[in-house]
Amino acid sequence: MRNLLDLVKPASRARTSMSSKDVTLKILQAMRESAIVADKDTYIICSNSVAYEEFARFGKPLENFRISEVFRDILVHESFCKALEKGESSEINFEFFSNERRTYKVFVSPLEMDDEKYAIGIFYNVTRLERLEKIRQEFLENVSHELRTPLTSILASVETLESGAIEDPVNNRKFLSVIRKNAERMHHLIDDILELSSIESGRIRVHFQEVVLRKVVCGIFTDLARKAKDKRVRLKNNIPENVCVFADAVRLEQMLTNLIDNAIKFNREGGLVEVSHRQTETSDIISVSDTGEGIPPEHLSRIFERFYRVDKARSRKIGGTGLGLAIVKHLAKLHGGEVRASSIPGKGSTFFIELPKRQ
What we know:
Blueprint: H1 2-15, H2 20-29, E1 34-38, E2 44-47, H3 49-55, H4 67-70, H5 74-85, E3 90-97, E4 101-113, E5 116-125, H6 127-162, H7 172-200, E6 209-212, H8 213-223, H9 225-230, E7 234-237, E8 244-247, H10 249-265, E9 272-279, E10 283-290, H11 297-300, H12 312-318, H13 324-334, E11 338-344, E12 348-356
Parallel strand pairs: 7-9
Antiparallel strand pairs: 1-2, 1-5, 3-4, 4-5, 6-8, 9-10, 10-12, 11-12
Helix pairs in contact: 1-2, 6-7, 7-13, 8-10, 10-13
């Protein structure tokens, strides 16, 4: 940044009557990052509009405030002093607190304008990058854990078979069944990871058409009938025959399958799963209700996050990849809609898919 300003300064004097300060301000205004110039007494003499939006207090301009008055962080103040007094550049990280905590990477360098010494600071907002990095790390940790659990069971079963159990006609089938079950669990997890990655990267496209909703729900009930019977859960389709929604038929079935499958898995024995529909002026709202244990209020805002589980031990025992609701959320957004949930602990939960009507 300093080299750019040094190059501009002599050229601007030759071609225009603008001062170095005016030229510098024009350069700063063209930048996407926050930029601030301070004089030898650490008073701010110019800043760009990005800096004003991010650091101004009570709507007042930054100019004529000291660096220490705007940034109450000793490292920022010391970096500007170092550039002004010693002519040395600095690179620091600092956090700024306003309505929310924001993290910045700051580069401060000496600057000369009209034979006067100044210091310029460029503030790169890395808050979003830090959040994305945290999400990436959590994702990798969760994937590692979810893969490690079935892999441990597979290896243990293989070792048992190798130790002689393969010759035991009573138990060898049992260990092979354990291996198959956990291998399928890993396969489903990898499929869901690839599916979610495709959706998030924009490689999935939705093909809208009029879909007969009751027919889709009936098909899902048929596919999940065995699972519902094993748990003695009753399935009830409340969708009228003539209801159509504007959606991608395959992706709509995928969303509803995830929600209905969860409603069966997390229901109580002898419980009920109902699928219903209602309309507003602008949307079709499909609801999937269960009579399970419900979801505590503090968890409702996070259940659509990848791998988030309300009861980790119970969820892993029941099965599932922990990605189903995240996939539903992203598919709903691809439709221009949304998904949400409500719940009463001890009485059950209801999930709503809201799809825009055809315009």
